[in-house]
Amino acid sequence: MANPSLLILPGDGIGPEVMAQVTRIIDWFGEKRDLAFDVEHDLVGGAAYDKHGTPLHDDTMARALEVDAVLLGAVGGPKYDDLDFSVKPERGLLRLRKEMDLFSNLRPAQCFDALADFSSLKKDIVAGLDIMIVRELTSGVYFGEPRGIFEEGNEHVGINTQRYTESEIERVARSAFELARRRGSKVCSMEKANVMESGILWREVTQRVRDAEYPDIELSHMYADNGAMQLVRAPKQFDVIVTDNLFGDILSDCAAMLTGSLGMLPSASLGAPNADGRPKALYEPVHGSAPDIAGQGKANPIACILSFAMALRYSFDQGDEAARLEKAVEQALADGARTPDLMGPEGGTPITTEEMGDAILKA
Ligand code: ATP
Ligand code: MG
């Protein structure tokens, strides 16, 4: 059987630096765990613009639609700030998201014990935290029509429209329930059904999908404002949270700060199933290209490494190997490995991006 295929797009800034550590880990899996991937490297963002005059070449787009998973570093940087909007590095990423139809954005908030002091909350609230927020990514108020700034009488009015179809809600709900089957079998859906029609439909449809297709999953519903409060008060009550584009945007950033550094946060975006039934998938760290620290060996590669762990679990059915990699990250942190972003007030000597890769490989 052919090896699973992986398209690696390191991108700009610290993207290539953190991706270099992932590449070492991928090689390790091939050598030590007999888990080989067909890996292709290509350009995206400013790097692609420099070579091709476009932030995403058509050939790269075509490959992204064919491979089992895409792993992306980061795009953008000050060098490209003055480019025309149509060729900005970010447009490369947006095109990938759009053409792969990545409607389900998975953002875990996981707190490694070694970093529990690092959270903005008390240690006992976050220690051992492991939750997943599923955000609908391609519809809702960011895309609904009509939208615009219009004249109305003698003033202007700014209009956006929250709009969800049943099928849009169904597909993101399914993706959350599928996820819950691999985790704690518990989903909490968040909307504002008390004041929004789209919320009423959201609640009805998620419940209907659960009753018809996922009776093994426990589904609860919560108003999103209460959800924000509960996320900060007692986040461990949740396992999978599913919510719309706008609420998900806010709630996932809120959850991110439960765990500490931006350098620790992975993400996955899933789309419609391919011919083999697996969803199209793009994995990337939550952070950007961090031009302020690029080229200095200061970047924390863990967000990108954990993004690869998500790929192992969700695109390649290698949950045990994903857990192995996550444990190695946990062990390296417990052994005291710290890039500069993870230095607490107690100080100490930070290590480089590559040394963090060493520590994780050793673990
Ligand atoms: P984007 O617009 O691409 O999301 P951003 O403006 O949100 O980018 P980032 O590039 O994510 O910003 O960087 C925000 C801050 O976090 C910077 O100070 C950066 O140095 C720091 N940072 C981001 N990623 C990492 C990382 N992997 N390791 C260490 N520090 C990081
Ligand atoms: Mg950002």
UniProtKB/TrEMBL annotation:
Marked site: Important for catalysis: 142, 192
Co-factor(s): Mg(2+); Mn(2+)
Binding residue positions for NAD(+): 77-90, 288-300
Entry's cofactor comment: Binds 1 Mg(2+) or Mn(2+) ion per subunit.
GO cellular component terms, A-Z: cytosol
Pathway: Amino-acid biosynthesis; L-leucine biosynthesis; L-leucine from 3-methyl-2-oxobutanoate: step 3/4
The EC number(s) this enzyme carries: 1.1.1.85
Catalysed reactions, semicolon-separated: (2R,3S)-3-isopropylmalate + NAD(+) = 4-methyl-2-oxopentanoate + CO2 + NADH
Keyword Zinc-finger: no
InterPro entries the record matches: IsoCit/isopropylmalate_DH_CS, IsoPropMal-DH-like_dom, Isopropylmalate_DH
Group of enzyme by EC: oxidoreductase
Name of the protein described by the UniProt record: 3-isopropylmalate dehydrogenase
UniProt domain Isopropylmalate dehydrogenase-like: residue ranges: 5-360
Organism this protein belongs to: Sulfitobacter delicatus
